[in-house]
Amino acid sequence: MKKDCVFIYSDDFQLYKFHNAHPFNQLRVKLTYDLLREMKALDDEQVIFPRMATDEELELIHDRAYIEAVKAAGQGRLSEDVALNYGLGTEDTPIFPNMHEASALLVGATLTAVDYVLSGKAKHALSLGGGLHHGFRGKASGFCIYNDSAVAIKYMQERYGLRILYVDTDAHHGDGVQWAFYDDPNVCTFSIHETGRYLFPGTGNITERGQGKGYGFSFNIPVDAFTEDDSWLKAYTQAFREIAAFFKPDIILTQNGADAHYYDPLTHLSVTMKTYREIPKIAHEIAHQYCDGRWVAVGGGGYDIWRVVPRAWALIWLEMTEQSNISGSLPKAWLDKWQPLSPVPLPPEWDDPETLYPPIPRKAEITEKNAQTVEKALYPIRSQRQNIKQSL
Fold first, then answer.
1. Nearest CA to 192 among 209, 169, 208, 210?
2. Which of 30, 93, 130, 333 qualifies as a cystine partner to 148, CB 3.0-4.6 A?
3. What is the pTM of this model?
4. Cα 211 to chain centroid, rounded
5. Nearest CA among 348, 346, 305 for reference residue 31
6. Which of 26, 25, 50, 46 is nearest to 36 (CA)?
7. What is the CATH class of 5-391?
8. What angle, 0 to 180 degrees and rounded to 10, lies between the N-to-C axes of helices 27-38 and 309-320?
9. In what order do the strands lie in the sheet with 124-127?
10. Residue 48, CB half-sphere, CA atoms under 13 Å: how many?
């Protein structure tokens, strides 16, 4: 097992909790952590306790007035009207006690991961508490209060002077990160997600390519509803490799939402654990090809916290530490511990059965449509490459 990887973790991640019925549930991080521990795949020295982000670090992306509003809301001192102006107190982002502290810890965890990688203490770092990609400069959105990935990217730019490739495989478009760097040629954002025709936040079209000096550094692949593994993976693999070759990043930050899975209750895609095996493999390959291995990975969406997220997120760590050939049964001790608390039967094995869902009637049409989307999304890169070849 590779030892040059760190896993950022604290039980205090559980404090980021809207209410018991809310779909966003950080118990999934603990479930993943416990799964890896039961497997003996995560050692004590690899687990790093996170720090809390400072107000100055949050202000790299968020307005001071918004940060103060979050603090006041978490202390019960913000009126409903003012709160709603900041996206707080909505159905998606209800107010909860000490929400600033809980949110700042998640940002600090991602910054901890960044510092371990960029100080040379680790090649790869995993911070599953993060990945809150919908947060905006002055507004909460989509379960996200502070945008840890955007703060981390700005932090890497200002402290380390790097070019960053941000890769978002959440089923929802990574809008908050994209818009934060839409005019920045030193940050390339790539989001593959379910089309916004049916799903929040409704953005992420292929025409969103950046603006000003940042034009041509924003890539989106909105796949069709009911997309399955083969089509999803072909789009992801082609796009990731071509974008990395075009941009040549200094470091990769991947957001690993696990909500494209067939079981996820909030989305309409049909991928299985086959996809979640491959996502980190490609990221690992690209990180070593272009970035001397520098790879920071964060969590994200994922609302079937029992059957999907622990397996999917554990596979990121197993890939980072070169243990990804795992297959067969999940640890009996883990199943015995958590099954009494789970409202659904836990999957007994790492991989999903081939009969997980009935055949998709429009499979050929969906596959062709996704292939066309990839062609359109990558056309600027391919056109530029063809022009270079013709000029030689």
1. 169
2. 130
3. 0.97
4. 24
5. 305
6. 46
7. alpha beta
8. 50
9. 47-48, 5-8, 124-127, 295-298, 251-255, 164-168, 187-194, 218-223
10. 28
